[in-house]
Amino acid sequence: MSSFNEMIENITPDIYESLKLAVEIGKWSDGRKLTAEQRELSLQAVIAWEIQNLPEEQRTGYMGPQECASKSAPVPNILFKSDAIH
């Protein structure tokens, strides 16, 4: 392979699943432990493949639309109370 992008284009769904599992458990399918470099490169490959092949909501790390919990509760106005003594 002459480039990372060419490698990503040649990843099949089965290879993707194998890489993803290896990153998750830290081992290859034959039980050998991934080195730090292998884990990093495999994760990069998984993420790059997902960008090209999966909708955003199915990608690694997707969090979905979220709102801050404080938006759901009214915020009391403590600076200008209506019952303040003048």
Structure, described:
The chain is elongated. By secondary structure, the chain is mainly α. 43% of the residues lie in helices and 0% in strands. It has one domain (4-72). α2 packs across α3 (36-53).
Please provide a brief summary of the model.
The protein is mostly helical and 86 residues long. The chain has helices at residues 4-9, 13-25, 36-53.
Shape: elongated
Rg over CA atoms, rounded to whole Å, is 23 Å
Q: Beta-strand level of the residues, as a percent range? A: under 5%
- So how many helices? 3
**Low-pLDDT residue spans:** none
Backbone structural class:
mainly alpha
Total tally of structural domains: 1
State the end-to-end CA separation. Answer: 78 Å
List the helices and strands and how they pair.
Layout: H1 4-9, H2 13-25, H3 36-53
Helix pairs in contact: 2-3
